[in-house]
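Ticket #4471: structure export looks truncated?
Reporter: QA, pipeline team
Priority: medium

Steps to reproduce: submit the single chain below to the structure queue and open the exported record.
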Amino acid sequence: MNHQQIHLPHIGATAQLATFATDNGITEQHAIIHIEPRGELFDAQMQRMLLAESELLATPQCQGAQTIFKRYFLSDATNQKPTLDQMLRTHDATRAASVSCIQQPPLNGSKVAAWLYIVHGMDVEDHDGLVIASHNGYRHLWKMGMHHHKGDSAWQTESLLIDYEETLQRYGATLADNCIRTWFYVRDVDTQYAGMVRARRENFAEQGLTKDTHFITSTGIGGLPADTRALIQLGTYALIGFMPEQQRYLYAPTHLNPTYEYGVTFERGTRIDYGDRRHVYISGTASINNHGEVVHVGDIVSQTRRMWENVETLLAEAGTTFADIAQIIVYLRDVADYDIVSRMFAERFPTTPYVITLAPVCRPTWLIEMECVAISPCTNNNFRDF
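Actual output as written to the record:
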């Protein structure tokens, strides 16, 4: 994994870029773009964001690539999304990408940050917001920004999952066999999370996802959809064309307990092996022990270190390390913790793409959570290359 910082001082932006390349395969890149806060309105910052995206894609290392997926972290999604949508409609670099936005304010003082997933050499199609990237017999399905605006959090979760399951069926896929990763954004997570958890558990049981089979790697986190009536927003990634033996779930039992023991239904992480590389998806992970207890209550420094330890243990179980990480999203409950957490991450991950956002974790005593994606070399002649 190659990490680099691309400074765009004339725009007032920085792109943190992670690149994974093989001699004969597809090149993958994850980028986090940060905008310098300059006291201007959102449309000016968003214009600078789109200029930064265009310049990033025009660099020698990204030239000719396609953007598969983009997530915008906004400071005020309800008021900013109409402007965002209007600007995206005229911006060529966003076409054929699955685009989502969520109110999780970037804590560097700006109004917007972005995570981009970029690939070289895949066939990409947009099917009404479902983006399919195909290569070598695999189809990667990204569908983001799904939400409803009626009912409580349980009803909305159930409806979103049913809609998504019907979408997968149209492509000969199922939630249990093909969905690799989900993101559940919950408005007022302290009061609405329980309804989401209950509905997800019931839906999963109907789909054959139980503690005796498997769940899905996931993040359930505080985040405000732009539609003020939406309590839940869902994002998903599914894979078609792989063999079951290519997938392995991660547990780290020395540090973490099975999630079903405290009533939730997600996997700690998932490893997907291809002939030429390994993908590792780590769920939202916090300061927890293998009894399901919050560790270091009230201590942001110790919670951050324990969170890192848990993630590092999951990565080790997958045969990867922090050096293989392509991107990190950090969620903070308290904006006042930003300065110290920012210094800790800058020291530990000086070149890795990451963004720190304001997003309450699902337990009030958890002060911080992180998720990440890792990519590492892997040679396995039993599997097709990526």
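Status: closed, not a bug. The export was complete when the record was re-opened. Leaving a note from the reviewer for reference: Residues 252-386 form a domain with the 60s Ribosomal Protein L30; Chain: A; fold (CATH 3.30.1330.40).
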